[in-house]
Each structure stands twice: as C-alpha cells, then as structure tokens.
Amino acid sequence: MIRIDVKVPQQDFRLSVSWKTGERTLGVFGHSGAGKSTLLETLAGLRRGASGVIEVDGQVWLDSSRGLDLPPEKRGVGYVPQEMLLYPHRDVMGNLRAGSRRAALRAAATRIDERRVLEVLELGPLTRRDIASLSGGEKQRVALGRALLSGPQLLLLDEPLASLDLPLRRRILPYLVRVSDEFGIPTIYVSHDATEVRVLSSEVLVLSAGSVVAIGPPDDVFTADTVLPMARAEGFENVLRGRVVEIDDATALVEIEPGLSLRVAGHGLELAHEVAVGLRAEDLLLSVARPTGLSAQNILAGTIDEIRHPDQAVGGGEVLVMVALGRGHARAVVSITRQALGQLELAPSRPVHIIFKTQACRVLATRRSRRV
Asked: What order do you get walking across the sheet with 14-21 strand by strand?
C-alpha cells in the first residue's frame, strides 16, 4: 500500500497530491512543469519543505505533524532521474555495484541477485564497457540496473526515456515491462508520454499545475474529457492488449478477446506472447458497413460510445469518435472530419467497423504469457 498526502510549495504553484493505492505499477502523467518531478523528488526525500504524510508498505517516511522526515538514504528508494547520473570514472559493472553497496550499507530488506539484473536488462556483454562508450539506451539500462541493485522498497523513474528518440524509446519499453514482471517492486513511472504511461501502469495520476486532474485505470483516465486533450497534445495512441495466437512468415495474429483479433508485423514475436499494440487515432478509418475487397487486413467491429467535438481553436474540423470494440472491454479513439460525421450519419450506439493496415500497428511491448 502506498499513501501520499502531501503539499509542496513551488515558485509558481503549490503541488498538492492525495493518492492512496494498493497497485504496484503506477504512472504520473502531465505536461512539462506540471509538478511530476517535484512529486518524485519529494518521495525520494530530495525536496525539502513538504508537509503531510508519505507511507510505503507500512513504513512512514514523512509525517510533518510529528516532525518525522526520513533522509533519502533511509527511504529505500531506487531513483532514476532524467539525467541518469552514472559514474563516468567507473565501467558498467562498477556503476551496478554502486547500487549493491548502497543496499548493503542500509541493510536493505530487499536484495536482488546481480545475475538476474544482468539477464533481465541484457547487460552481460556490457559489464566492462566505459560509460562514455554506451548508447543512450544502454545508459538507461545501466541506471535502471543500479537502482534495482540498491534493494529499493519503491522504484522511481523520472522521464527515463525522454532523452531518446522515439524508435529507441519503443525499444527500451519492453525492458521496463520485464523489470515490473520479474522483480515486482512498486514503481512510479513519470512521463509526459501518454503511451508509455499506459503500457507501464495499472493506475495513473494526472497532474496539471500541481493539482490532481484524474486518478484511475489508464484506459479510463486517458479517454476522460479532462485528460484526452492533454494526451493528444503529447502524441496520444490507442493501446490494445492481446495475446499472440498465430504466426506466419511476416505477421502475427493478436487476440484481444474471443472473436476480436488484429494482425501485426510478426518480427520478434512468439506464440503466447502478451503484447501491447499502439494505434494512432489518425490512422484508423470508420465504416458503417463491413467493407470487402480491401488490402487492409484489420477490420474490427464495434459500437460508438460517444462523439466529441474538440474546441474549434484546437481541433479545427476534427471529430473524435469513441468506439467500444467487441464486448466493450477494449476501446479506441478514431479521428474523423466533421464532414465524414455528417455523411456517415454517425451517432452513439451505432454499429461501426474500424479499418487499418498491419503497418499502422506498433508493437510497443511484449511479455511472456502469465496465463496458467
């Protein structure tokens, strides 16, 4: 259980967060300057002047009413800041063992096997490399490994992929998923990238100018009226989750639910892999009848949940159609024009079909199936 009820004065606003959750993979989303990094620094004990309570798995780190404010070294935090702050004079293994030494110094209750970290993050071939010789993605994996080896009660990741280009960020995402699956350490992941937060989190808190805008499951939060415009401004993608049930020479069939599947590029996928697939709202087409004779291999049946008209000054002629797919457990946002809305006579509760090419699907993350 994590309980955060804090207020932190800032130059332009006061950060005010009240969040109590039993989930273990948490996301914090918001525009730059919303207070995301301030929240992590407060949790890590690096930001002074906070009032309120911070409690992690029964241990109180902050209780200003009692004058309790544990220093950073006693909080059991594995912190990966945006800058990574690796030791340039040490090789990869030297950086990793700096985390192990910290765990030993504070007699951490959580001790993680060094070999497991090397395996999960695929760092074995890099152990003797100088930090300066590493790519941005390799440095991120080293910083994450060092944080894990510190034996944390709580892992804090502050925009860990922000300095990487988009293709590299998507290649690093699976490592973060594996860390969550393999080690089970409560993690708070901060990003202004809605797609990353959706893939990595089971619960999300959204900040704007230091205030909480929304808290809840990612799929609900990111399609809410108050959050979707923020997410769209940062590069929103629909995220559909499923399981690989068929592979041919070039593609894989991903089952979202019985009777609802989509076809994606199959490179690197295996049967029974659980995958998260990203789809841009702009890459989807809508039809009121099931089309035939198309080269596009993906045609998903659904029902219109809601139709939204963004502000003219922001969205121009854009209309966002919220579609419940299959049995309604999965949803997708489709961007169309106002002209198309009228021509197709779209309205809530109307059955539709979403059409898109295999190439429009971006496999964001994979994991071994956890089904028994």
From this structure: 68-69, 59-63, 51-56, 2-9, 14-21, 211-216, 203-208, 25-29, 187-191, 154-158, 77-80
pLDDT of residue 3: 97
Has this prediction a pTM greater than 0.85? yes
Q: Parallel, antiparallel, or unpaired: how do β-strands 187-191 and 25-29 relate?
A: parallel
Record: fold of 2-232:
Rossmann fold (3.40.50)
In this structure, CATH architecture of domain 239-367: Beta Barrel (2.40)
Map out the domains of the chain as residue ranges.
Answer: 2-232, 239-367
Structure tokens at 109: 């209750």
**Rounded Cα gap, residues 107 and 251, in angstroms:** 49
**Interior/surface letters 210-245, b for 16+ CB within 10 angstroms, e for the rest:** bebbbbeebbebbbeeebbbbbbebebbbbbbbbbe
* Residue 171: pLDDT band with limits 50, 70, 90: confident
The owner of tokens 């996301």 is: 27
State pLDDT tens for residues 267-306.
888 898 899 999 999 999 999 999 999 999 999 999 999 9
**Whether the Cβ atoms of residue 47 and residue 56 lie closer than 8 Å to each other:** no
